[in-house]
Amino acid sequence: MSQARSTREDAAPAAGGRTFDAGLNFLVRWAGPLGLIARAMLAYIFILEGAEKIGGYAGVAGYMQAHGVDGRLLPLVILTELGGGLLVLFGVKTRWAAIALSGYCWLTALFFHLGADQSIQFNKNIAMAGGFLALAILGSGPWSLDAWRGRSY
To answer: Distance between CA 60 and CA 72 in Å, rounded?
Structure first.
């Protein structure tokens, strides 16, 4: 029996007992590393931006004030970006972190990116919110600390 054939036969079918596309069943075998890569891609911008906000604290607080958001919320913003990004990256309490980051993306889009010149940023934030929502629904995957600890947060 060929390797490709056994991969298709061993793959878990989607809900309802049928696979959507038998040609994509190889993804089941790669779910662990691909899930880790996906989490890293989602977390990257938040870890980077959270760390940068610490270095440019006064400027970021002023930017927030200029957009009608109290600058005293900046520690919460940093905690959400940096902390949430690290939780998603390592797969710890991933579902909760993904929900928080999804909400954060929505709020950022609504408070900072509603202008006509901000449509790309607005759309990017909405797309990331959807990605985090999917992560919250699907969980962190097998290559995560949640899975290692036997939890599905």
So the answer is: 11
